[in-house]
Amino acid sequence: MGCTFEQLSDLKSGDSAGRRPAIALLTMGWAWSPGGGAMAISGGPISRGWSYRVPLPRGEVLPRIPAGGFQSEDEIARLPGARRIDAVGVVPGPSADVYAFYRGTTQRNLYRIPIP
């Protein structure tokens, strides 16, 4: 079982018994689809340059998370319906085949640099 919006604040700050949060939200990138039916995860234990799209059970805002949080990319890849995407910072769309991401490049004119 995942969690609801009410339980999400407990994951950020720890629960009422003073235990540490189950996951470190600051080390991973999280984005939800417009209808809340899926989320994208990047960063943390996931290899650089990749993200995962994970479908969510109805009414839940996070997938099932292991007790100590995600320790490896393999744990995320084994989530039901998880799909690896070759991009970072993915934002899922309304269906499994639709997502957005930014991939920028910079080109500079080195010939304008004066050489003494």
Would you mind describing this structure in some detail?
The chain has helices at 5-13, 73-77; strands at 28-32, 38-43, 51-55, 83-85, 91-92, 99-100. Strand 1 (28-32) and strand 2 (38-43) form a beta hairpin. The chain has one domain. By secondary structure, the protein is an alpha+beta fold.
Summarize the structure.
The chain is an alpha+beta fold and about 120 residues long.
Q: How far apart are the termini? A: 66 Å
Characterize the main sheet. 4 strands, antiparallel
Principal-axes shape call: elongated
Low-confidence stretches: 12-16, 18-23
Q: Report the structural category.
A: alpha+beta
Helix content: 10-25%
Radius of gyration, whole Å: 18 Å
Give me the side-by-side strand order of the main sheet. 1-2-3-4
